[in-house]
Amino acid sequence: MVINILAGGPEELLPDLSEYNEENSIWVGVDRGVYHLLNRDIHPTIAFGDFDSVSQEEWKFIKEQVSELKQFKPEKDETDMELALNWALEQNSDTIRLFGATGGRLDHLLANVHLLLNPLKTKSSVHVTLIDRYNMIFLKKPGHYTIEKRHSEKYISFIPLTLDVTDLTLEGFKFPLKKRHISLGSTLCISNELISDYGTFSFSEGILIVIRSHD
Q1: How far is the C-alpha of 168 from the C-alpha of 179, rounded, in Å?
Q2: CB burial of residue 87 (10 Å; 0-12, 13-18, 19+)
Q3: Which listed residue, of 105, 120, 159, 174, carries a Cα 20 to 30 Å from 58's Cα?
């Protein structure tokens, strides 16, 4: 099962959502993201938010179209996106995608990137990816991984999220590495590229942010 979550980030940064509207996918709206979904003729199964970013007319439309609404006060401990992600993690899905989570306020962007830690903290095997028009972002804990070359996402960057990432090895890349220690704040692994159809990356300690991007 795939769960797609759309928040209310700038519409110009959204990818073509129809590409992710598979038959087995469930859509979740977050705050103004609910309105964006309905305007694309995608009806969310459930919606979360304080809905302080929609007009009264838009709120009326949302209430008419969405059967399960989880409305919260603006003053709360979790962001709307975190509430939606926590619900998604309880559904035992294989894949969760976050859209509308970049652009605009930097505090929202950083918070949403850090939300990718939640399944790692609970030791869940679900793959959570943050996607916008230009980027795909996900986290990895220590291990050995295979990554496929995609012309639509030419660049691949590896950024430490923890203080240290140990024994980072990149094979099949334009700029390979062999058991390198990468510290928080390093830009060594920005904008790498695959030279083969597939490459691998591995490391023994730490958490990596992996970003696949195109211009």
Answers
A1: 5
A2: middle
A3: 105
Tell the burial category of 6 from Cβ atoms under 10 Å away from its Cβ (0-12, 13-18, 19+).
Answer: buried
pLDDT of residue 59: 86
Domain boundaries, the chain: 2-133, 140-213
For domain 2-133, the CATH architecture is: 3-Layer(aba) Sandwich (3.40)
pTM here is 0.93
Q: What is the pLDDT of residues 140-184, one digit of tens each?
A: 999 999 999 998 899 999 999 999 999 999 999 999 999 999 999
CA atoms within 13 A on the CB side of 81: 26
Nearest to 42 by CA among 60, 16, 78: 16
**Which CATH number does 140-213 carry?**
3.40.50.10240
